[in-house]
């Protein structure tokens, strides 16, 4: 068993009202078993569409996982759709009905008549016990392909998968392993990363290497297949070393690492502290830093000095400096960082001042212009970045915050 389709049922998914976290979680669990997910498909609450997709999946994959549409309401059509796909009728499963009645009784509640529909299964299918809710799962074969249907409620789905489905798939996968790793980098365009890693990204290579980009952070994903987890891990390690060697300093972490978390570890390692002075980013840098557990060991405080008066009153920025150069300028960014470092008594301080838009820009200082200051024990330096006037306001702010954190990271690396 090597390939899978994951089908997520629900009109709320196809309309974008709910994000499908179930599909991502299942794909990761399948990958750990050595099973490659070929497709994620979201289907509205539609009988014919669900039946058609289930049949297509069964004809293309070696295992099909389906979530959602097992509730008691009229739009929960997964059971009926599977019966249609299999060409059989729905029948009551008395064991499931007894479990549903017991679920309500244990909570001192009366089961509604409509909950009886949750005990219906396509003829020939097997119910999967739901230890966390009312809707049993369904196990059946379509076109000879094993299909497992689970509730859409994430904690119910996860419990069912781990208890009753994952062990079966582990045996069916015959020990083959697919291991995943993701490296994160900042400060290098995705196109340049693609050039540097071109030979590693050739289709059909093992490990498989690909890239993604989100507001300056490039993700390099590495997927390695092997006859065992140990063999796949060796391939991962070799490719990771090669990527790091080629990319160098822009690589800041892997898997669950964040820029703020990496910076925090570096500060702890030096016994150093940091503070922030933010204008256009409105406290985003401080938020990123304090999102990390244990950040009180190195983050001393931050100031959101949006107005010119606040820059002067809180950070000690000279009014004449602002008058001469404007609030969005290199000298003011430097003064803000130095002022924060003095105000909070930190070893380092970062600052931002810029024009996030959508209005407020001029020919000389367009929307997207941001100055990022860094005050250190020995110097104060400023970066000028132009993120572009067509970039949304929230993206400019996020990009500026990440650039500030990365500037501190690279300074700590070099120092």
Q: Can you tell me about this structure?
A:
The strands form four sheets. A six-stranded mixed sheet has the order 2-1-3-8-7-6, sandwiched between helices. The protein has a five-stranded mixed sheet with strand order 14-13-15-16-17, with helices on both faces. The protein folds into three domains: 3-172, 3-Layer(aba) Sandwich (Molybdenum Cofactor Biosythetic Enzyme, Chain A), CATH 3.40.980.10; 177-254, Alpha-Beta Plaits (2-Layer Sandwich), CATH 3.30.70; 259-414, Maf protein, CATH 3.90.950. It has helices spanning 11-14, 21-32, 47-60, 78-86, 94-105, 154-172, 190-196, 229-247, 259-270, 284-290, 308-315, 319-325, 330-344, 393-414; strands at residues 3-9, 36-43, 63-67, 90-92, 120-122, 126-128, 137-142, 145-150, 177-186, 208-214, 217-226, 251-254, 274-278, 299-304, 348-354, 369-375, 380-386. The chain starts with a strand and ends with a helix. The protein is elongated and about 80 Å long. With 415 residues, it is an alpha/beta fold.
């Amino acid at each position: 068993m090597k390939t899978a389709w994951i089908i997520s049922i629900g009109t709320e998914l196809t309309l974008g009202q709910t994000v499908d976290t179930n599909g991502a979680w299942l794909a990761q669990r399948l990958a750990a078993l050595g099973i490659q997910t070929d497709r994620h498909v979201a289907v509205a609450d539609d009988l014919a569409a669900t039946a058609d997709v289930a049949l297509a999946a069964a004809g293309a994959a070696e295992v099909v996982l389906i979530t959602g549409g097992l509730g008691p309401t009229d739009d929960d059509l997964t059971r009926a759709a599977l019966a249609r796909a299999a060409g059989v009728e729905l029948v009551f499963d008395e064991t499931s009905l007894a479990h549903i009645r017991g679920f309500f009784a244990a909570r001192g509640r009366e089961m509604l008549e409509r909950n009886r529909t949750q005990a219906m299964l396509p003829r020939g299918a097997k119910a999967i016990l739901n230890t966390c809710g009312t809707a049993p799962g369904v196990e059946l074969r379509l076109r000879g392909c094993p299909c497992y249907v689970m509730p859409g409620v994430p904690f119910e789905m996860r419990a069912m998968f781990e208890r009753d489905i994952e062990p079966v798939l582990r045996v069916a996968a015959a020990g083959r392993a697919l291991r995943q790793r993701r490296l994160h980098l900042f400060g290098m365009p995705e196109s340049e990363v693609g050039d540097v890693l071109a030979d590693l990204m050739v289709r059909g290579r093992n490990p498989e290497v690909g890239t993604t980009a989100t507001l300056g952070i490039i993700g390099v994903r590495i997927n390695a297949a092997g006859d065992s987890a140990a063999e796949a891990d060796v391939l991962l390690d070799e490719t990771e070393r090669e990527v790091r060697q080629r990319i160098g300093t822009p690589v800041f972490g892997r898997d669950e690492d964040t820029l703020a978390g990496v910076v925090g570890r570096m500060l702890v390692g030096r016994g150093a502290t940091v503070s922030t002075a933010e204008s256009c980013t409105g406290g985003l840098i401080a938020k990123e830093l304090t999102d990390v557990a244990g950040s009180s060991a190195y983050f001393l405080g931050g100031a959101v000095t949006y107005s010119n008066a606040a820059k002067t009153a809180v950070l000690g920025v000279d009014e004449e400096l602002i008058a001469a150069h404007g609030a969005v300028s290199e000298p003011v960014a430097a003064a803000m960082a130095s002022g924060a470092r003095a105000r909070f008594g930190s070893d380092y301080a970062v600052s931002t001042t810029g024009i996030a838009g959508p209005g407020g820009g001029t020919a000389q200082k367009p929307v997207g212009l941001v100055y990022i200051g860094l005050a250190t024990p020995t110097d104060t330096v400023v970066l000028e970045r132009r993120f572009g006037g067509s970039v949304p306001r929230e993206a400019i702010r996020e990009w500026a915050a990440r650039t500030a954190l990365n500037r501190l990271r690279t300074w700590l690396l070099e120092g």
